[in-house]
């Protein structure tokens, strides 16, 4: 694209209007900054221009630097927009709609004035992609809002709504935004003759705040230490804001630039950039026509008011969508609604939700006792007990009561959706919409394509997930679908390693050091060991060759079902969730190993990490080979949003590439020799290793 077309300049009524037009989000891609500079210079030179407006065409102001350019060699620009704005003699007003993020807000902060429409959002989210604001944001923002608020905004990366931005002085005025260009021109005319020009770089009064609160930087370090463990960017953001308070402006800018340079190519920044694009790519399903006419989903129903059904109902209410929650048992329904109320009340108590918002959300959830009452909803999600006969009965009922064009979704986590769809007269309108626990919190929304699911149904389900703020990901219909299936080897090795001599707290520590917020055994204790025990027993009853897991089984049989019992893999004090290592567990492990003739040995941390993660990489490859997922990066996104995989590692396959497919394949092949069939290497993995290929770039040949 040529410079002329990405940035336009025209003059109306004495006001030069600079319009950035670089779809979809006006990122500062090739030619954009140069285009803005050229326009500013034109405006300066034109005697008819009294002031200028900087605005974005399309849906937004400027979403920041072009993230795709990071990590690639770039020429040092001869001039920077910020400097040109600082040196300008005519006032420039940034007129913000949509988003002013990162370099977008930095450009706006270098303008003399900022106005925004009520729905606009501003922020410096660079930390979320492992870097820091490198266009003066760490130096200008503290000069406006004070270093304390700047720390909060820069280290969290949060988006700030227009009204808060106005209160904090980031923007000067809120304009209606009915006709952005016209209103911005009118506003600019109002300040065109004002002198001197207000420049943020010249302000220092807010920086004095640090004198009354010199500990604010250490407080920020403590506040973010846990959340940002293993990542260098938050610390460098803090250092940059500290520099704003201790160095003259130009020196502070140089410090910011140096710190930015230290981060741009860090492994964490590369991983976070990968995650950013993978999260967008996952929305695309190859082969789906772009012009599909999707059925509209405005009203939802959820069948089953248990913990899962309740969480699902909340996910719709949270997004402002009306939802009916049906359960044949009045008691279960009342308990379900009570649980929803309690969950919201906890958020109100914590301050993350207002009472008013809670009341609004509760009013969107209508409990009903008969299936007939949900018949007029556009779609329904079934979340009843995980048994095929029960699901089939529900779907027969749904087929009977739901209006003919309603979509029927199941939240099953493993059952064959073709069998469920087959009991209805509309299998083309049936798909899986699989939530992760807790359903109202976890962002992953796995959409399962059964063999008769129509493309419209599939696309509507994907859109439904996105509409409620989740990340929709495609999976084929197979046991465990894509996410849970790829996770099975992890859980299996976790338990087998304990039989072989690794201790639960050692494994937890390895995974926490790797970046998981909580180790897998602690997670098991929180969710309760009894559920998976019951599943194992059911599977054993159906298949005599199924291998039970003697250690977790023994724990459950000894009443150690987890946190709720005060003991599981760990021991807990009454009223306290802190896990304590328990010698009784060690004794039980030793006893079971002896009884089962398993020789125990010690494990290195590396072996633990690789045993836990390599099996799932192998399974990812098998899933792709079978065409049950679109691409490796989708599975990475599923692990980020379904299982808490550390984001700054990009994803499982991305992390695998840091070791190399060859090393992983060789180790898996060796374990195949040693441990047998469960480590059988996938063909796709073998081919990738031989070709020195990238795991994260793998794709299914064909979806099946
Ligand atoms: N660079 C390159 N591409 C970008 C981009 C960016 N900064 N921001 C968005 N895009 C692309 C997306 O990849 C997507 O492309 P696709 O259609 O090919 O998948 C497209 O724009 C639309 O993006 P979304 O799907 O995310 O659109 P939404 O409307 O849901 O969200 C948004 C809009 C809130 C602006 C979101 O895109 C976003 O958060 N973008 C990133 C913002 C950001 O991090 N800015 C800081 C960049 S770093 C920087 O500025 C450094 C500076 O300090 C020097």
Task: Report what the structure shows.
- The structure is a single chain.
- The protein has 30 helices and 17 strands.
- With 704 residues, it is α/β, with parallel strands linked by helices.
- The strands form three sheets. It has an eight-stranded mixed sheet with strand order 12-11-10-13-14-15-16-17, sandwiched between helices.
- It is globular and about 90 Å long.
- The protein starts with a helix and ends in a 14-residue tail after the last helix.
- The mean pLDDT is 95.
- The structure holds 3-hydroxybutanoyl-coenzyme A.
What labels would you give this structure?
8-stranded mixed β-sheet, 6-stranded mixed β-sheet, 17 strands, binds 3-hydroxybutanoyl-coenzyme A, 30 helices, alpha/beta
Entry summary:
The chain is built from 30 helices and 17 strands.
The average pLDDT value, as a whole number, equals 95
Q: Kindly state the number of beta strands.
A: 17
Give, in spatial order, the strands making up the sheet with the most strands. 12-11-10-13-14-15-16-17
Note the gap between the termini: 39 Å
Q: Which value, in Å, is the CA radius of gyration?
A: 28 Å
* Overall outline: globular
Give the helix level as a range of percent: 40-55%
Bound molecules: 3-hydroxybutanoyl-coenzyme A
Content-based structural category: alpha/beta
How would you sum up the major sheet? 8 strands, mixed
How is the topology of this model organized?
Elements: H1 3-6, E1 7-12, E2 15-20, H2 32-45, E3 51-56, H3 81-87, E4 92-96, E5 99-101, H4 103-110, E6 113-116, E7 121-123, H5 137-145, H6 147-156, E8 160-161, H7 162-167, E9 173-174, H8 180-191, H9 209-212, H10 216-225, H11 233-246, H12 249-264, H13 267-281, E10 300-303, H14 307-318, E11 323-326, H15 330-350, H16 355-364, E12 365-368, E13 379-382, H17 388-401, E14 407-410, H18 417-422, E15 430-435, E16 444-449, H19 455-467, E17 471-476, H20 483-500, H21 504-514, H22 520-527, H23 530-542, H24 550-557, H25 583-595, H26 605-625, H27 632-642, H28 652-659, H29 661-675, H30 683-690
Parallel strand pairs: 2-3, 3-4, 4-6, 5-7, 6-9, 10-11, 10-13, 11-12, 13-14, 14-15, 16-17
Antiparallel strand pairs: 1-2, 7-8, 15-16
Helix pairs in contact: 5-6, 5-11, 6-10, 6-11, 10-11, 11-12, 13-27, 14-15, 20-26, 21-26, 24-25, 29-30
Bound molecules: 3-hydroxybutanoyl-coenzyme A.
3-hydroxybutanoyl-coenzyme A is lined by residues 24-25, 27, 63-68, 99, 101-103, 106, 125-126, 129, 133-135, 137, 277, 280.
């Amino acid at each position: 694209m040529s410079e002329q077309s990405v940035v336009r300049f025209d003059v109306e009524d004495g006001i030069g209007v600079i319009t950035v037009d670089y779809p979809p989000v006006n990122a500062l891609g090739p030619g954009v900054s140069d285009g803005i500079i050229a326009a500013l210079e034109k405006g300066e030179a034109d005697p008819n221009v009294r002031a200028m407006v900087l605005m974005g065409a399309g849906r937004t102001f400027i979403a920041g630097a072009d993230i795709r350019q990071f990590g690639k060699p770039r020429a040092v620009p001869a001039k920077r927009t910020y400097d040109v704005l600082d040196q300008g003699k005519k006032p420039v007003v940034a007129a913000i709609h949509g988003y002013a993020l990162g370099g977008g807000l930095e450009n706006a902060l270098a303008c003399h004035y900022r106005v925004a429409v009520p729905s606009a959002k501003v922020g410096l989210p660079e930390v979320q992609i492992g870097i820091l604001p490198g266009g003066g944001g760490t130096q200008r923002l503290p000069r406006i809002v004070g270093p304390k608020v700047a720390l909060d905004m820069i280290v969290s990366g949060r988006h700030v709504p227009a009204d808060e931005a106005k209160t904090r002085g980031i923007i000067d005025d809120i304009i209606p935004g009915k006709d952005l260009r016209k209103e911005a021109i009118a506003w600019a005319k109002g300040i065109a003759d004002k002198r001197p020009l207000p420049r943020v770089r010249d302000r220092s009064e807010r920086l004095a705040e640090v004198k009354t609160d010199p500990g604010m930087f250490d407080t920020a370090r403590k506040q973010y230490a846990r959340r940002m463990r293993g990542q260098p960017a938050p610390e460098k953001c803090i250092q940059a804001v500290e520099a704003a308070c201790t160095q003259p402006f130009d020196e502070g800018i140089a410090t910011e630039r140096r710190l930015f340079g230290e981060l741009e190519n860090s492994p964490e920044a590369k991983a976070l950039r990968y995650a950013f694009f993978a999260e967008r790519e996952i929305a695309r399903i190859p082969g789906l026509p772009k012009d599909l006419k999707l059925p509209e989903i405005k009203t939802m129903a959820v069948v089953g008011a248990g913990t899962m059904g309740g969480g699902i109902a909340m996910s719709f209410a949270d997004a402002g969508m009306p939802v009916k929650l049906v359960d044949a048992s009045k008691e279960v329904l009342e308990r379900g609604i009570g649980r929803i109320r309690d969950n919201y009340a906890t958020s109100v108590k914590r301050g993350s939700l207002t009472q008013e918002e809670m009341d609004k959300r509760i009013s969107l959830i209508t409990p009903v006792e008969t299936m007939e009452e949900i018949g007029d909803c556009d779609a329904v999600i079934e979340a009843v007990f995980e048994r095929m006969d029960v699901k089939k009965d529900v779907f027969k009922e749904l087929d009977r009561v739901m209006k003919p064009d309603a979509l029927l979704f199941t939240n099953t986590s493993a059952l064959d959706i073709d069998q469920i769809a087959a009991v209805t007269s509309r299998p083309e309108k049936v798909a899986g919409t699989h939530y992760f626990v807790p359903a109202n919190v976890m962002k992953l929304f796995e959409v399962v394509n059964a063999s008769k699911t129509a493309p419209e149904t599939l696309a509507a389900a994907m859109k439904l997930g996105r509409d409620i703020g989740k990340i929709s990901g495609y999976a084929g219909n197979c046991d465990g679908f894509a996410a849970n299936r790829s996770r099975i080897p992890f859980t299996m090795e976790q338990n087998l390693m304990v039989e072989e001599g690794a201790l639960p707290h050692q494994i937890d520590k390895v995974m926490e050091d790797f970046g998981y917020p909580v180790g897998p055994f602690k997670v098991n204790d929180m969710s309760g060991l009894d559920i998976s025990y019951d599943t194992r027993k059911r599977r054993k009853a159906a298949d005599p060759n199924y291998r039970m897991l003697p250690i977790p089984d023994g724990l459950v049989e000894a009443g150690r079902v987890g946190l709720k019992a005060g003991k599981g893999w760990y021991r807990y004090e009454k009223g306290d969730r802190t896990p304590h290592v328990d010698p009784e567990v060690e004794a039980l492990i030793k006893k079971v190993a002896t009884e089962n003739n398993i020789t125990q040995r010690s494990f290195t941390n590396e072996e633990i990490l690789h045993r836990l993660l390599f099996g799932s990489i192998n399974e990812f490859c098998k899933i792709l080979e079978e065409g049950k997922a679109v691409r490796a990066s989708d599975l990475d996104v599923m692990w980020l949003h379904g299982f808490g995989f550390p984001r700054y590692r990009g994803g499982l396959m991305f992390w695998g590439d840091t070791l190399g497919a060859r090393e992983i394949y060789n180790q898996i092949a060796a374990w195949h020799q040693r441990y047998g069939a469960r480590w059988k290497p996938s063909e796709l993995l073998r081919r990738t290793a031989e070709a020195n290929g990238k795991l994260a770039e793998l794709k299914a040949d064909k979806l099946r």
